[in-house]
TrEMBL record:
Residues 316-325 have a biased composition (Polar residues). InterPro entries: Diverse_Substr_Oxidored (IPR051312), FAD-bd_PCMH (IPR016166), FAD-bd_PCMH-like_sf (IPR036318), FAD-bd_PCMH_sub2 (IPR016169), Mopterin_DH_FAD-bd (IPR002346). This is FAD binding domain-containing protein. Residues 1-181 form the FAD-binding PCMH-type domain. It comes from the Bacteria. PANTHER family: XANTHINE DEHYDROGENASE FAD-BINDING SUBUNIT XDHB-RELATED, XANTHINE DEHYDROGENASE SUBUNIT C-RELATED. Residues 306-345 are annotated as: Disordered. The lineage of its organism: Bacteria, Bacillati, Actinomycetota, Actinomycetes, Micrococcales. It comes from Zhihengliuella alba. It holds the Pfam family FAD_binding_5. Gene3D superfamilies: 3.30.465.10.
């Protein structure tokens, strides 16, 4: 929290107030830990505080969900059990809590850290980037002239701690469409250590069947954490891939240099785990279980749909978990690369 160069904290949501030496302040969990030289050799001079923005954290309508950039992780975690989404056939909501848990953070972080802040930090392992990209979220960005533009979250992050924002631009909100929320979803996350930073986090989505002919929807695979930026693979509804075709598509879509390299995983390991988890997602979404009627599930934070096997491993944050699942319990084993198996629901 070494920010001894700050001369003023300015409550504002207007990008026109931004000037060189400023930084937008939301929850501050990253900004305060990075210090005054977080963004280069020149120190920060002012913080533009979004704390009084007054934006509704979550807005739900028939077209989908809008998340304010200032929505906290605690507020997002509470959404699946809340009244605004009650009765909606949105399986995509099942991704919210595993992605929140992927912070592997205390309730103090959950109650301050924001959806927009995590996306704007743009780390490969940012779980809000994973969630919003995996559900085809679209970010609204406001410039200094007041003009707004939109960009898919899958394209918002351009590299490790790099994104599409220009000087002074402000991430206002993320819109998640109802069509993506209506899809069948699956989640996989792996780390080198028990409850460590994500080394690979993949989200799979299968569109609902066509009411007219019963045909499957589009299969979408979103790769994050293992790569420096999100990578999406889309397969047409009438051309769902088999295991070999999926592996070939992953290899073709992700060049070796795009895999992230740090103490949380070597590129070679991340590549191998990406291929493994991608196949697990494909098999689960398409219902291609093994001869024993089970699916392979590597990693943590994904609950067996039939209630058997390892339950949804959650961070032990009672202050943020307003509607805990009755069979939820923390994982007692490290998320090794040895898969568990679950029966088809």
């Amino acid at each position: 929290m070494d920010l001894n160069t700050i001369e003023a904290v300015v409550p504002t949501t207007d990008p026109a107030d931004w000037r060189d030496g400023d930084a937008w302040l939301a929850g501050g969990t990253v900004l305060f830990s990075y210090g005054a030289y977080a963004f280069g050799p020149r120190p920060l001079r002012r913080l533009l505080d979004l704390g009084r923005a007054g934006w509704p954290a979550v807005t739900v309508d028939d077209d989908g969900i809008e998340l304010a950039a200032t929505c906290t992780i605690a507020e997002l975690y509470a959404l699946p059990g809340s009244e605004p989404v009650a009765g909606r056939d949105w399986p995509g909501l099942e991704l919210i809590r595993p992605c929140c848990d992927s912070f592997v953070a205390s309730f103090k972080i959950w109650n301050l850290s924001t959806v927009g802040g995590n996306i704007c930090t743009s780390l490969p392992a940012g779980p809000m980037t994973s969630l919003c990209a995996g559900l085809d979220g679209v970010a609204t960005v406001i410039g200094a002239d007041g003009a707004a533009r939109t960009v898919p979250v899958a394209e918002f992050v351009t590299g490790d701690a790099r994104n599409c924002l220009g000087p002074g631009e402000l991430l206002r909100s993320i819109r998640i469409p109802a069509a993506a929320l209506a899809s069948k979803v699956a989640f996989r996350r792996l780390s080198l250590s028990n409850l460590g930073r994500s080394g690979a986090l993949l989200i799979g989505r299968l569109g609902p069947r066509n009411d007219a002919d019963g045909a499957r929807g589009q299969l979408v695979l979103t790769v994050t954490a293992s790569t420096r930026r999100p990578v999406q693979l889309r397969f047409p509804a009438d051309a769902a891939p088999d295991a070999d075709r999926l592996a070939a598509a992953v290899v073709q879509s992700i060049p070796a240099e795009l895999y992230h390299d740090d103490q949380h995983g070597l590129p070679e390991w991340r590549r191998d785990m990406t291929l493994r988890l991608a196949e697990e997602l494909r098999a689960e979404l398409l219902g291609e279980h093994g001869p024993d009627g089970t699916f392979a599930v590597s990693g943590d934070f994904w609950e067996c749909p039939d209630g058997t096997g390892r339950a949804h491993a959650r961070s032990a944050q009672p202050t943020t978990q307003s509607s805990p699942r009755p069979n939820a319990r923390p994982s007692a084993q490290p998320p090794t690369t040895q898969p568990i198996h679950r029966k088809e629901a």
